[in-house]
Write a structure and sequence with these properties.
The protein is of the alpha+beta class and 175 residues long. It has 1 helix and 9 strands.
């Protein structure tokens, strides 16, 4: 039985073609992402020229509309930094909570703040406010006791968006 010996130059050529094809694929994906706001804070830029199809729908009370679970809800951060969560039907009208539950964790990773919620007047109300500043949060929503948790991650940024009528955490501009 004869053993074939491949020359290193042939292997290098094949590997070069493979790497080049991978680089072309990644450069196409990279070209779709806009890096025009390097060095600028998110709220400092004015490039809100996304197409209408990429814009999100806002909540009926000016909060963040969350549609990642079976029940849509509006997450609104009140002026005192407490959080209100209103469950919505398909027509975006409020519905009373039944078996759903909500928890929010936010702030510094080494010492996170966990918000629990009580139903007051048909709306989930947090038991305490969120920490000050622009903080990352994770909203955890459950349809029922036996359902799996659906998580929504975002940054609480209460500055006004320069292009829409919402605050940055609930911005609908598509940026």
């Amino acid at each position: 039985m004869k053993t074939k010996i491949y020359r290193p130059t042939a292997l290098i050529g094949i590997l070069s073609l493979f790497v080049a094809s991978c680089a072309d694929t990644n450069s196409d994906k990279h070209a779709e992402h806009d890096h025009s706001h390097e060095g600028a804070a998110h709220s400092d830029h004015d490039d809100h020229s996304e197409s209408e199809s990429e814009k999100r729908e806002g909540g009926p009370n000016g909060g963040r509309l969350v549609t990642s679970s079976d029940t849509d809800y509006e997450l609104r951060i009140n002026p005192d930094r407490t959080v209100s969560i209103t469950l919505l039907d398909q027509a975006r009208k409020p519905v009373a909570p039944a078996d759903q539950s909500v928890t929010i964790v936010g702030g510094d990773r080494s010492s996170p703040t966990t918000l629990s919620f009580n139903v007051i007047s048909g709306v989930f109300q947090s038991d305490k406010p969120l920490p000050d500043g622009n903080i990352p949060v994770i909203a955890q929503f459950k349809e029922s006791e036996s359902a799996s948790i659906v998580r929504e991650r975002f940054t609480v940024n209460l500055s006004d968006c320069p292009s829409c009528d919402y605050q940055e955490y609930a911005c609908v501009c598509g940026h």
